[in-house]
Amino acid sequence: MALLLLLTLLIAAAGVKIVSNQSAIYDTNKDIQKMESSIDEQVKVNNDLEVQVSELNTYERIWKKAAELGLMLNENNVKVVQE
Question: C-alpha 61: how far from its chain's center?
Answer without folding.
Answer: 31
